[in-house]
């Protein structure tokens, strides 16, 4: 089995101006991915919107992250954060857009994509061919391809 | 001029060249438009490339005792804080006062002052501010008075010891003062300034504080043990911090400089936390610990030491010292009190580190006027008190103040510059009045 980007490509929607946080959450939840590309008014892929970023800046104040091990069920800050989570899904997406990370064309080797993900400390990378977004690949997708490589493992306990 | 110094390019007057570099560098640092370490290093580079100093003379001006002490303590704190011990103490102390708002303010301020005396102010507020925001959030009280009190506590606590605040580290290193010297001469007055400050804070905010029984019960439900994330690390950290403090206390009979003690402590803690770990894990741990050192501050010091060395060699500081003496008429008491007040006002407005770096050689050069270096001790205590306590005068007075303001803002509670200064500046002046009385009656 060859390790091509095409084999693990996950086609997704693109977040566009006017869309909401709910659109991001729905697509990411459905496809088990962490982020989506953002396309500006000129139709150019110009940024990234990640689940982590939205949650970090909307539901979790810095001091709660710092004291994560102290948080408990009865705390009002936990309730407030849950309430905040309910509110943010109707927020416009624009404030959460961050710089576009490294992208890679679909013709490149999968291992190069993996190396770039590692270099950028990311678990996904967007696939862009001549400015056109094709989808993304994730570390889970690559693991799945690797698990199907030809090499039979010894069965534990068998001679 | 030093024998190592080279000639200034185009035969320019070294006094003028070094003065212009000094003024421009400090002016750009004050604007805070460019990172202060970049500005200081560029200024230092200019001092060398323009020929005011050659490289060897510039390196001779760097106080490696200050840098070693700062770096060693930063490594120790970077490792220890991962254990969660500081948050544990903060939450534990809040529960000890049955979660009453004023009691919590008092206890968190006390913990802040103690930690600031033994660690550095910035680290202390980095650890205490999140706990404060969490606790005040649960109590449903405004965090501002708590954060305000902690800013003051960190600067007052830092005044008490050699390692508490960078100005003290610089003064201690320049004049060969020990940990005990600071403990004997500065700690007593901080024990007066701290309660007076808290009493005024009580009158302003404390007596109006109230929290519901339900909110207080929520604080009592906190499980402070959960803050401790690594018990073996906690034990190792406490052991090393204790040994380092004992080392500071006995530095004189041990014939060790503070930097050596801090560096040995850092190396020992790195060793203890690396034992029985794989080579790769060890390497990652050491790398992470060194990465947490505030290199911006360290390089800022390097640049400043070179710049100040440049103006010292060119003779500017001698001229400034003579100016100070002509203003005070060579009166020792007046000079000491003037140093406290000028240091306090300057430190409230600008960073106290460059100010102290400049003042140290100025005070040193006053030795012949006042009968030798040994007679200058009251002036050093005046400088330390003014520079450390002056940091309370405004939000930009000390790095710790800005850290607290940053935390508060990100949590949705903006601390306004003028609103803060309106109470902080007069309160700082109260501490300076107390410090002046102390210096006058004890030393003059």
How would you describe the overall organization of this protein?
The complex is a heterodimer of chains A (159) and B (444). Chain A is of the alpha+beta class and 159 residues long. Chain A has helices at residues 5-8, 21-31, 51-58, 62-66, 76-88, 110-119, 139-147, and strands at residues 35-39, 45-50, 98-99, 103-104, 124-129, 132-138. In chain A, strands 1-2-3 form a 3-stranded antiparallel beta sheet. The longest helix of chain A is centred in the middle third of the chain and has 13 residues, at 76-88. With 444 residues, chain B is mostly helical. Chain B has helices at 14-31, 36-49, 55-60, 64-80, 85-96, 101-118, 121-139, 144-159, 166-175, 179-185, 187-204, 213-220, 231-249, 251-254, 258-272, 279-291, 295-314, 316-328, 332-349, 352-364, 377-390, 399-410, 417-443. Chain B contains 23 helices and no strands. In chain B, α5 packs antiparallel against α6, α18 (316-328) packs across α20 (352-364) and α19 (332-349) packs parallel to α21 (377-390). The model of chain B is unreliable at 1-5 (pLDDT under 50). Chains A and B meet through α4 and α5 of A and α7 of B.
């Amino acid at each position: 089995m060859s390790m091509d980007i095409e084999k693990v490509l996950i086609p997704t929607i693109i977040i566009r101006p006017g869309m909401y946080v709910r659109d991001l959450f729905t697509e990411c939840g459905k496809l088990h991915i962490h982020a989506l590309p953002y396309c500006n008014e000129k139709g150019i892929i110009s940024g990234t919107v990640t689940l982590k970023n939205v949650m970090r800046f909307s539901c979790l104040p810095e001091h709660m992250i710092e004291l994560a091990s102290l948080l408990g069920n009865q705390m009002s800050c936990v309730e407030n954060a849950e309430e905040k989570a309910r509110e943010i899904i109707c927020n416009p997406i624009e404030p959460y857009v961050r710089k576009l990370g490294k992208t890679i064309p679909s013709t490149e080797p999968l291992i190069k994509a993996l190396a770039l993900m590692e270099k950028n400390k990311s678990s996904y990378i967007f696939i862009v061919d001549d400015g056109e977004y094709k989808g993304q690949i994730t570390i889970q997708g690559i693991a799945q391809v690797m698990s199907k490589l030809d090499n039979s493992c010894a069965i534990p306990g068998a001679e | 001029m030093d024998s190592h110094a080279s000639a200034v390019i185009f035969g320019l007057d070294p006094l003028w060249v070094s003065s212009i570099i000094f003024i421009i560098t400090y002016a750009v640092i004050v604007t805070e438009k460019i990172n202060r370490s970049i500005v200081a290093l560029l200024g230092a580079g200019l001092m060398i490339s323009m020929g005011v100093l050659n490289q060897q003379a510039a390196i001779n001006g760097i106080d490696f005792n200050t840098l070693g002490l700062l770096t060693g303590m930063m490594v120790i704190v970077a490792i220890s804080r991962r254990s969660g011990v500081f948050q544990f103490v903060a939450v534990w102390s809040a529960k000890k006062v049955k979660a009453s708002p004023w009691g919590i303010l008092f206890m968190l301020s006390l913990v802040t002052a103690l930690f600031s005396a033994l660690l550095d102010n910035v680290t202390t507020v980095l650890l205490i501010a999140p706990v404060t925001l969490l606790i005040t959030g649960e109590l449903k009280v405004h965090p501002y008075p708590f954060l305000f009190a902690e800013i003051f506590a960190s600067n007052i606590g830092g005044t008490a010891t050699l390692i508490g605040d960078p100005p003290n580290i610089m003064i201690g290193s320049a004049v060969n003062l020990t940990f005990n010297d600071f403990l004997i001469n500065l700690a007593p007055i901080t024990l007066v300034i701290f309660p007076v400050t808290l009493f005024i804070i009580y009158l302003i905010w404390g007596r109006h504080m109230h929290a519901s029984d339900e909110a207080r019960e929520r604080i009592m439900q906190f499980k402070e043990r959960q803050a401790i994330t690594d018990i073996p690390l906690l034990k190792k950290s406490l052991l090393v911090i204790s040994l380092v403090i004992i080392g500071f206390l006995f530095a004189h009979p041990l014939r060790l400089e503070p930097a050596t003690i801090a560096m040995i402590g850092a190396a020992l803690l790195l060793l203890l936390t690396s034992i029985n770990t794989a080579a790769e894990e060890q390497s990652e741990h050491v790398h992470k610990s060194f990465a947490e050192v505030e290199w911006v501050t360290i390089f800022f010091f390097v640049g400043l030491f070179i710049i100040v060395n440049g103006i010292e060699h060119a003779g500017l500081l001698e001229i400034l010292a003579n100016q100070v003496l002509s203003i005070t008429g060579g009166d020792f008491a007046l000079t000491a009190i003037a140093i406290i007040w000028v240091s306090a006002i300057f430190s409230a407005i600008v960073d106290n580190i460059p100010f102290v770096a400049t003042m140290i050689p100025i005070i040193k050069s006053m030795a012949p006027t006042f009968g030798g270096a040994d007679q200058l001790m009251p002036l050093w205590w005046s400088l330390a008190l003014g520079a450390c306590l002056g940091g309370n005068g405004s939000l930009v007075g000390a790095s710790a103040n800005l850290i607290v303001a940053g935390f508060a803002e990100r949590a949705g509670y903006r601390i306004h510059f003028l609103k803060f200064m309106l109470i902080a500046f007069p309160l700082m002046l109260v501490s300076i009045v107390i410090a002046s009385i102390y210096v006058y009656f004890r030393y003059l």
